[in-house]
Amino acid sequence: MKPYREDVPSLSAQYPFGVVLTLPEKAIILIPARSSQSSYQDARILDESSIRRILWTFRADFTVVNGIRRLLVDETSFASHPNLLTGHQVVEAAIAATVAGHIFAVVAEPRPEQRAHDAINYLRLAARFFSADPAVQEAGFFAFLYRELPRLCCDAYAQMSSATDQIVQLNDQGYEFLFDVGAERVVAAFGITRYNPGSRDSARMAGFLGQAGSTDLQRIILQAGSAQGARNRLEKAQLTWRDRFFQAYGHHYDRGHFISHRQGGGLDINLFPQLADINQGRTRLGAEYRAMEKACVAKHGVDPVFCCSRPIYNDDSWVPVALEYAVIYSAQRIEFRTFPNRPSGGRRNGGGADDKAGDAA
């Protein structure tokens, strides 16, 4: 799978002195290696010919050349007095600094993906339930949700990037999961919530995207097509899960749960990379997400609650751009909201679905 690339606004927010080079099909941002939060191994341009071809395109761009001058002053020794250099000399110095690793040339998305994805219309679903035949109403709204949600979630998922039709439904810890076998990612997780008094299995969670064991490393060597390929794979496999994410998906992620541990959610299929600000409740939206999770924890003497957690994707990775979360008390009371799941450089939405909420009360 191709690596996830952060968009230009996100990277510009992290590196305010970075220099953005906008090309027809992509964007490059030059950032100071000394202050970089990642090696950007999978998203950097490393070969000299490519760097030269790109930078020479901008040799007459006054704004770009002045931005590069600032980078040369602050970060490298390739130009002792860059303010005295011509535009051509600045570009040559930048090429040398980039090849030497003093400046990173990071490939970024030219703009965040703005495609809106349809939310599950829970209010319309409730209206359909009330107009259904008496036998359906007698079975209850939650039974109606178990019957209707798989189709609705699959229909909504089919509009997303890289979705396949190889979707299976399985039960894990009492919750229903829809899983795209072709794209290897969760489509939705839902069910009547419960209370889990047990402690987290920290050892197993640590293995989620953890370092590879000796057996895994040996298998990687045997499966590699070349010695160089084996070295590249081993280098990545030996990274910690967080370092691996820094290289492939950007920053600020936790091991999130589609269905929280306290609600009785499990591990494995239930784990996904979740934006830490949301998962830990550090922002206004994060606090709302945590409150909705807590509302789903079953309580003694209180009617059960139905929960649906639905990731929204806008590329071919398994990292959602957003998470639609619904807490359903009854057909008359439904709360739902979409939470961002990508670093946004100050924007509210994670490059995709709108931040929205509803209540049928």
TrEMBL record:
Region (Disordered): 340-361
Name of the protein: Uncharacterized protein
Organism, as annotated: Bradyrhizobium jicamae
